[in-house]
Amino acid sequence: MILTTGSAGFIGSNFVLDWFDQGDEALINLDKLTYAGNLENLASLKDNPKHIFVHGDIGDKALVSSLLARHRPRAVVNFAAESHVDRSIHGPEDFIQTNVVGTFHLLEAVRAYWSSLPEPDRADFRFLHVSTDEVYGSLSKDEPAFTETHRYEPNSPYSASKAASDHLVRAYHHTYGLPVLTTNCSNNYGPYHFPEKLIPLMIVNALAGKSLPVYGDGQQIRDWLYVKDHCSAIRRVLEKGRPGEVYNIGGWNEKANLDIVHTVCRLLDELKPRSDGKPYGDQITFVADRPGHDRRYAIDARKIERELGWKPAETFESGIRKTVEWYLENQSWVTNVLSGSYRQWVEKNYAERG
Ligand code: NAD
Ligand code: TYD
Q1: How far, in Å, CA of 6 to CA of 4, rounded?
Q2: pLDDT digits over 174-203, tens only?
Q3: Considering 134, 166, 229, 314, which one is annotated as catalytic?
Q4: Domains detected in the chain
């Protein structure tokens, strides 16, 4: 069996659902259930005894140690994190606590467990750390995409906290020999994406007749990957990746934010036209920029393709259509997610942007 953390969130829950679509190896899912964790994402697994959900914190070393001792997983995949850049700007502390201190405690528990394993289990064990392209900082328009050897230049409290965790993971390999793998992926989109992030926020706001807030000039570039492709890449790295290595994951889909918002609007115009017949694009508004806003991210994904034979299955066009369709078909998921705490966040983040 394997142990995954933070897998009631966006990417982790997609990973768990895919895991049980592809096989029947048991999985322990450790999640703190912050605002971003949602067990409704995993409702289809509620009668599956091979999915063992544990409510808890990666920073709780005693809990993690007891889970490892009891279940003896062959691998740990660490998705758990505070993940939203804007939240990290308003309040960085949770990011340091979970992404840095939490990852440290998790690594310590895993190191003790791994050290106690007999060979060949010890050699076969893997700790896979899921990270982001944001640790590499911001690219100018013409710079080449991030390779695995790009220097770390994190610019937000979020990316700095992820960078710190990547360094800890690296050090645990270098110093203790823990068989780690690190993946740095570009922006994901797809089902179960919490509507504080760009794409789901635009879909949800558009359908609710609300404004579509584009930060600054909307010309910041992100490199978008459909979440199921990220999950297949993680599975590939887990099975075939070389311990100690870093793999960048991306879909070669660089798009400016404003183009993304227009694409979402056009799909909604087609699939769920506004009752007044006007285009959703009329709801776009430009608001104050994010402080320290990174201009461009782009992933060079040649290493994972060359060494592990991984490529994304979706194009941006197919993935974004599936995503918009999923939100239209899962309005009750959206309604449940839009809880009181979510509304408070929206008020705080957008009120001061004017
Ligand atoms: P998310 O915010 O949707 O989910 C995070 C999950 O972690 C939630 O279920 C939350 O309850 C859980 N969690 C938070 N703190 C915890 C703790 N202390 N102990 C246990 N669980 C905890 O995030 P996501 O978008 O699914 O991202 C997952 C991982 O992938 C993160 O490490 C993130 O940095 C990385 N990543 C995300 C993207 C993206 O575009 N979303 C891209 C690249 C990498
Ligand atoms: P986001 O989904 O928060 O991901 P990240 O900051 O990790 O890349 O934002 C994606 C891009 O969209 C980013 O450049 C900020 C921008 N953005 C907006 O323009 N308006 C919004 O309301 C949000 C949430 C993001």
Answers
A1: 7
A2: 999 999 999 999 999 999 999 999 999 999
A3: 134
A4: 2-192+225-252+293-314 (3.40.50.720)
